[in-house]
Amino acid sequence: GASDPTVSLSETMKGKLPQRKLVTEAAHGYSSYGNQIGLATGLVNEIYHPNYAAKRMEIGAVMAAAPRSNVTRATSDPGDIIILLGGRTGRDGCGGATGSSKAHTVESIDTCGAEVQKGNAPTERKLQRLFRNPEVSRLIKKCNDFGAGGVSVAIGELAVGLQIQLDKVPKKYAGLDGTELAISESQERMAVVIDPKDVDTFMKYAAEENLEATCVAEVTEEPRLVMHWRDKVIVDISRAFLDTNGAHQENSAYITLPSEEDNYFKKTKDVSDMKKAWLSNLSDLNVCSQKGLVEMFDSSIGASSVYMPYGGKYQLTPAQSMVAKLPVLKGKTDTVTMMSYGFDPYLSSWSPYHGAIYAVVQSVAKIVAAGGDMDKIHFTFQEYFRRMTDDPKTWGEPLSALLGAYDAQIGFGLAAIGGKDSMSGSFNEMNVPPTLVSFAVDVAKQQDIVTSELKTPGNKLVVFTMKKDAYDLPDYAQMMDSYRTITKLVNEGVLKSTYTVGFGGVAEAVSKMAFGNKLGVAVDENFDAEELFKPYYGDIVAEVAPEDMDKLTAEYKVCGTVTEAPEFTYKDMKVSVDEAIAAWTKPLESVFPTRSGVEEKKIDTGLYTAKDIYICKNKVAKPKVFIPVFPGTNCEYDTMKAFEKAGADVEMRVFRNLNEGMIRDSVDEYVKAINSAQILMFPGGFSAGDEPDGSAKFIASVFRNERIKEAVNQLLNQRDGLALGICNGFQA
């Protein structure tokens, strides 16, 4: 969430960075982290509203999957040991949770800088690898990651009675006092409860992944939270007191009814000049292309994404949900996870109640449009509101939104199983728009997924319409019947492409559907001009072959026909697809460029053709591939699967460098692995980004070790072996 990043720098608020600076630097930050840990980012959107100038919003969600057999839910018993695992503790993040929950002023820049945690993506990747090992996950009785409150919360929540030794907490640097060690929110740390008999085994597995692990606490019979620092007890609190959640608090809430005069659903667009209306609609900040932003993220890492963020031959039809196969290591799966979101800041500003309802509706509609089953959906809500005061009207905004979200859950019969809130979106006298974003998640089969780009000229375009009552609220029964029918039609292949109506109405939907393959749309002349631009959340546009029209049993309106001529026509309006794409891509091109600015030259490389195929002198029935893993490596699993699919045996080993002994052992292991392999594969990845100090230099320095160098030379020159490198591995 941001304000308009295209405005002149002269309009920057006092005490704030320019919006353009905020959106570009933030994108560098959150894309860098996701790319480094090797998680595919299949959907990225920035939402624009003037009031996000008060405080930028960044929210998101990640889907994870684990085999049920690997998940244990045990109790913490007296004598159990708590191990702190992963990154070291520093002063970064001291007071971060309370800091992020404060209203900010121009003085904040002088007082809040230290509250921000520093990320450490390579360590996060190591934690992923460790926890993915079933031998490890079954040893863990309970686990917390480190967030708000640091040690005091992450460890303090794991058992009723605890003795915590703060001196044992690994530090980034000397000089931290007991309070700082107890509350620092430094990232990439885990606290795990382990049975005493399993501690040595767990430590061995952590060392194999090059992870620091330290026993820092013990579970006790006495129900007290006790912290020791420098041979003194500095915290000793009874669990009974902690369980009270502190002092009782309450407040009054006053919900203000939305104004009928400003009814968001009754607003109309000037359609006297239809071409102008069409192009200006595509140029709206909440409709226009964000491809330059999206391309900063890796959507294909892990080789599990079912479709790219932009579809069609020209990759110009934006996806509305993320769909990825379960990341199984062995065997195949056609099971996919789906995730979408819904939210309109302008609708929520008019009515937080309606805004929350249609956030839920929109998130459901996007899952259904992609081929998901509505009845399997669960939600997680993330809320962002102004700083709460004693004024009951400030409390009325989140209460109104939560009542709306609750109404939608009851209406659909679907539950929210998670959420996160922040009541801190204020800067001086300015407040963020009331924000409740609904994330919907689902599970489906890969073969049931449908994409959004138009497929075939001559096909009909229809809008599945959802009924609303006199108060502009959904008719849930009709909506659910329609959605179940749409899912059935998608699964049967009747609907060739689909798109959920959003901020720019049907006109936005058919335009974006057409962009991917540069087909055109002849809008039906009977379709009302004003209706083309209204954000009827819940409605779904679909492409249907003419011979399948009789199979449509849900309520719909015909809105047009797919044409081979790349143009949009409606009555006497004609807009070429290229003209529309130009209007759509222009607004944010200067902020998130898709072009380098360097003069483009076509380079014809031709195809590489080998006159004959080289056959290895030393033939083996099943070649062995050695994949070394270094800090920053993040595509070793997909590389392994590709080689196994081709028929090879794969050995993966992490290079460990926590101490001299580990380095010597790793060199021995690498020499042995290279000597028994026919192929050496350096996989890709990052280390602190992809700059010159990245993992390529680290890999190269390791492979300059005389013993490893000799093993590689023997592999390539005497045993006729092969070496391959990708990304940082190729640089190395």
Q: What is the class of the largest domain in the CATH system?
A: Alpha Beta
Helix run count? 22
Distance between the termini: 39 Å
- How big a fraction of the residues is strand? 15-25%
What is the number of strand segments? 27
User: What's the shape?
Assistant: globular
Number of domains: 3
Structural class given helices, strands, pairing?
alpha+beta
Task: Estimate the helix proportion, in percent.
Answer: 25-40%
As a whole number of angstroms, the C-alpha radius of gyration is 28 Å
Q: Could you walk me through the main structural features you see in this protein, from its secondary elements to its overall organization?
A:
The protein is of the alpha+beta class and 732 residues long. It has three domains: 9-62 and 256-585, PurM-like, N-terminal domain (60s Ribosomal Protein L30, Chain: A); 78-242, Phosphoribosyl-aminoimidazole Synthetase, Chain A, domain 2 (Alpha-Beta Complex); 624-731, Rossmann fold (3-Layer(aba) Sandwich). The chain is built from 22 helices and 27 strands. A seven-stranded mixed β-sheet has the order 2-4-1-5-3-6-7. Strands 18-20-17-21-19-22-23 form a seven-stranded mixed β-sheet, sandwiched between helices. β12, α14 (392-412) and β13 form a beta-alpha-beta unit. The protein is globular and about 80 Å long.
